[in-house]
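S1.2 Input.
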Amino acid sequence: MTSFLLKIIGIITMLFDHVGDSFIGHFSFLNLIGRIAFPIFAFQVVQGYMHTHNVRKYALRLFIFAFVSQIPFMLFLSTFYDSYYLNIFFTLFLGIICLYGFDKIKNKYLGTLFAILICVIAHFIQVDYGSYGIAVIFVFYVFNKFWPNKKSLICLAFILITILKYLPNIISYPSLYIYYIGYILFTCISLVPICMYNGKQGPKVKYLFYAFYPVHLLLLYFLTKI
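S1.3 Output.
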């Protein structure tokens, strides 16, 4: 499976998730499908980091689109949620900072502490997916860097941190445990297309996701106002 196909799967499942939020409500089947999206984008940003010729330009591009997308994201959230946080591009941007810092710090124990610090920052500034989002990016990168042929290790680590993400919700909201178990299962389903990735790019649509993200959020916002 090429990078292009992975991005298409990510975009479609993300759209399902946001349509579910806008017109049905959270915990719908569309939201379950939507759990597939973020791990794919996290995996893609790791691939982008590993293959880019200029990490700073890559990070800057994510940062610019994070600002461009924030107002559409806030408008979208306002239709069903009374709190605001930073959109997914901020998460991906911090993920790049995490990987870059980890690589630049020679002592990998200190590098790991730096990654934990970025996770803490992500939590407190309330980026989408919070510290979990950074942890997923870090896991995908570190396991691919040190154990490139051990897909089982990557999958195991990913499943573990996904369980840890939703376990507090299962404990705190026992009446909703079946939904959170569903979130875990569908999040882990993302490993299927990720493990099928063949290292090839496919058709070049560099700005497809960048443009689609804010545009579809604005469209959903206006559709809910009709």
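S1.4 Remarks. The first helix runs from residue 3 to 23.
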